[in-house]
Amino acid sequence: MKKKNGKIFANIIIILLLxxxxxxxxxxxxxxxxxxxxxxxxxxxxxxxxxxxEETVLKDVFFPVTNIGDHVELKTILPDISTTxxxxxxxxxxxxxxVYLDDQKIYDYGSSLNAAGEMVGSGFHxxxxxxxxxxxxxxxxxxxxxxxxxxxxxxxxxxTENNTTRNFILTNITEIIIGIxxxxxxxxxxxxxxFFGKAGKEYWVLFWIAIFSIAVAVWMLSNFCIWQLxxxxxxxxxxxxxxSLYFAPIPMLLFVCGxxxxxxxxxxxxxxxxxxxxxxxxxxxxxxxxxxxxxxxxQIFHILGLCAIALTTISDIISMKQQNKKSNQMMLxxxxxxxxxxxxxxxxxxxxxxxxxxxxxxxNSFLSIGVLTFVITMIASYVYKMLLIYYxxxxxxxxxxxxYTDALTHVGNRAMCEKEFHARDSVKNQxxxxxxxxxxxxxxxxxxxxxVGDQLLVEFAGILQDNYKEDGFIGxxxxxxxxxxxxxxxxxxxxxxxxxxxxxxxxxxxxENRPYQISVAYGYCSNRENPDYSLWxxxxxxxxxxxxHKTAHR
Length: 554
Fold this sequence. Notes:
Shape: elongated
Largest sheet: 6 strands, antiparallel
Distance between the termini: 73 Å
Strand order of the largest sheet: 3-2-4-9-6-7
Radius of gyration: 39 Å
Number of domains: 4
Helix content: 55-70%
Order of helices and strands: HEEEEEEEHEEEHHHHHHHHHHEHHEEHEH
Structural class: alpha+beta
CATH topology of the largest domain: Rhopdopsin 7-helix transmembrane proteins
């Protein structure tokens, strides 16, 4: 018990050290980024719907959550520091944007999309500034296109064009690494399942892990604007963001369902998956018709997402209590970590946006770490369960092997012979049954002892396997009686195999220093004579013929 507690304590210490290291690295990255850009923090004139705001420091500016039609205007004098290839960087949510320098428009975005009824999207904007921007008046106008868009303005800064990509990557390095890892893993696993997987239960469980990873990765790369490193279409990025977010719980729940055996749990999960599928279908149709955009359904999704997490947690707890499986325990730990991050993130998002606004990037969160942890535990629980199934199957096969194998000769025992009779009777293929009985076996036992008699049985079984291993089934009915069931009823072929067998026995008998000679009587019967013969009928007829052969050659 003390050793176990020591391991838990050591793991907690390692996790805490990793967290501290993470924050140290993030802090250093933040310092590096801030040193390479000019932050426009204060001296702003801000109006919301033509009403001036008292605050002039951007991080202190909070106002009621903006809705469709609201107009926010920011104005300031740019600093007297002027550099070549300068870029104005800012991030905004669901708004038409117009930027003026000394009342001359230098940038606009979103008006044509909004006029067409499309989502404008959210993300970073990089506005090229002229070389003589120093001391000029900068005015940025935001015309809100969706309800519940934003309640504060993210940081606005000036940096050189060469530093835009570098600073963006450094700021989002954790999300980029996790997003690319999850996307690559999901795609690779999907391809492997597509080309090498089998259409069974285990295949689908692994497939849902891959789809969940892809969905989460696409959401992360969209939510953190990482796709903007590749293309700048904010409308498409917003589409990816909401669609992947709303879809992600479906493969997660299907994975959980595949890991459980309880029928009630499965039915509950399938019912909720149906609800999520209908939700997605309705939202997609309404968005495509420009009636109700994806962003408006976010609060509904938060409720559905929390319900999905609750259902998964409850089903895992029930399954763990009923079956006490370690695979469920692993997944429950991963799920618990993700739930903590998810609850914290949803609470943070809604508090920062609606209750107590703070001037922070609403997309920032540690949810990516929680999701990565959950995906890893999903994989670990799946692998553990597959190993358990493999070992159980191997153990079952070993027991079957023991139950149906003759311990001495390692051919099928009588129980296996009778099982083979029933199996072959159900298919009615071309079959021949050959009965063998060792001559003078009792004399060998009486003269040389039972150990030598056992050696004779093993030796003869080996000869039969060598002669018939490719042609059918070999078994020991008991004592010194063996049978071969051939997958052939051609009498000339049967006779040929018997001749080959006798040649092998004769060669063995001519070896020097043998204490005994092998002599065998045989008889056979095929269903060529009568297709309606059962295996038992053929066995009895071949047995009778074998005894005739034995009597004739004694």
